[in-house]
Amino acid sequence: MTAAGSSLRSRSWFNNPANPDMTALYLERYLNYGLSIEEMQSDRPIIGIAQSGSDLVPCNRHHLVLAERVKEGIRDAGGIPIEFPTHPLQETGKRPTAGLDRNLAYISLVEVLYGYPLDGVVLTIGCDKTTPSALMAAATVNIPAIALSVGPMLNGWHEGERTGAGTIVWKARQMLAKGELDYAGFLKLVASGSPSTGYCNTMGTATTMNSLAEALGMSLPGSAAIPAPYRDRQECAWETGRAIVEMVKADRKPSDILTREAFLNAIRVNSAIGGSTNAPIHLNAIARHIGVELTLEDWETTGADVPLLVNLQPAGEYLGEDYYRAGGVPAVMGELSKAGLIDGAVLTANGRTVAENLVGVRIHDDKVIRPIDRPLKEAAGLTVLSGNLFEGAVMKLSVISDEFRGRYLSDPANPDAFEGNVVVFDGPEDYHHRIDEPDLGIDENSILVIRGAGPVGYPGGAEVVNMRPPAALIRAGVHALPCIGDGRQSGTSGSPSILNASPEAAVGGGLALLRTGDRVRIDLKARSANMLVDEAELDRRRADLAAVEDTITPESQTPWQEIQRDLVGQFATGAVIESAVKYQRIAQI
Ligand code: FES
Ligand code: MG
What we know:
Residues 367-575 form the Dihydroxy-acid/6-phosphogluconate dehydratase C-terminal domain. Residues 44-357 form the Dihydroxy-acid/6-phosphogluconate dehydratase N-terminal domain. The chain is an alpha/beta fold. The protein has 3 domains: 44-155 and 195-358, Rossmann fold; 159-193, no CATH class; 382-547, Glucose Oxidase, domain 1. Helices cover 37% and strands 12% of the residues. The chain contains 23 helices and 14 strands. It has helices at 11-14, 20-31, 37-40, 63-76, 98-115, 130-141, 168-178, 183-191, 205-216, 231-250, 254-257, 260-273, 279-290, 296-303, 320-326, 328-338, 354-357, 402-408, 428-434, 471-475, 535-543, 545-551, 559-567; strands at residues 46-51, 80-85, 120-125, 145-149, 156-158, 161-163, 382-385, 392-396, 417-426, 446-451, 483-485, 498-502, 519-523, 528-531. It has a 5-stranded mixed β-sheet. The chain binds FE2/S2 (inorganic) cluster and magnesium ion. FE2/S2 (inorganic) cluster is lined by residues 59, 91-92, 127-128, 165-166, 199-200, 204, 206. Residues 91, 128, 205, 463, 490-491 line the site of magnesium ion.
């Protein structure tokens, strides 16, 4: 199809004299709420606003307000805005997990961006999975796209102390277990962490992924950290609307921005911000859909040695408002640049390079964002482990507490390794039912293992690996045990768990062979995780593998669970729909 007098993609729908019947049919229905033929056949680009906020998605709900400013920006720059809803993705509301729906939202958004007359799109992002699903879809379709973060909530407070969304729950849960809070007091304390519209004000998966969208160059510089209710956020919405029109005119597409160098920048930023352990899953997924080579190993080689600069909960003390006031993502990237850890030549959404965007940026509060020569922690990225338990799993080095280090990593002869006997749980329900059973014999030398929590076992992957010790042990002062699992953990958890183990037990990964009482050895220096079980015994267990896989794979409850289980890959490679990866840059086809 060719369009008359315009190179805009949408004109093949709206202005195609060679096919007047279809042109009329496409055109007339978009006129019926007030658009004119003149507008639809002009050289004004049609800009989609992929609306991820709704009453079902409170974290992103403020986008319903921001979209009005986005539309004004699009109009002011000469475009025509068309807003449409995306599949709801609320981290805290969706059963069994929002992780299950990330690929569903991706598939659905690809279909919309490809199949409708859109020349560019504003991706409204916020809550954990809304960011990766939108960027994955933009990567596949490859029309000009810019992300607009909804911004974090204001800081939470309780009795003069900051309470963070998602982090306060871990502390409150321990207080409940110790009897220091009753049920009503527990709920009130947790709610204090969420005082306004916006996404989690902590360095959870949402702040991480919104920061990384900016670090990748897919949103305006300085935009990620602006709190949702601030007036600056409205201004940013307007500027984003103006920017996407310019991007369409310049034909600046995701493939121009999402290069391997951009991903490596984002990996280093993830270490410096103390980002979520969900980040490798999502970034690897985006990379696969744009066709950039990125592996789990890149997270180790590129990110492990990068220092922690951002003092946000759970690794640190502060919250979202503080992060913004201290300078946000540009201040972090500016510090990393000083140490040569940022590739400044990478192009960003606004048409300028990272280096150009960073001119003149500085830290405004060095308690919240530390200078590169005075980091909170050295070598604070993710480490990637492997062995006979799994081929790949990650551990977040920035959240290893002094208590944990003192108990497990203090042997002077062997400061990087520890061993323990495992207690194995088959899925989240089994863990919840049995964790406080005294005859499990869990003590401070135990290692807790959960399996059946990966993308196939617990469809989408459960955020459960950060298991709490039994209540009796917490009362005795043991606040965290080493945990291993093939699931994920919440980005707001402060546990140094070994997680995202791939391949997962449900598809025959090493964890499926493990039994309660086995001894496991973790060596952080050698980056190994092994069960100390002899080969002959492992062979015997392999014969029973099918039975184990069956126990840990509950029946699907919905059609999508079954479809996703058939098609999904493992966490190490992004947990994408494998058959979707070959569809690349499809808007150009
Ligand atoms: Fe939505 Fe944390 S639950 S951002
Ligand atoms: Mg989460």
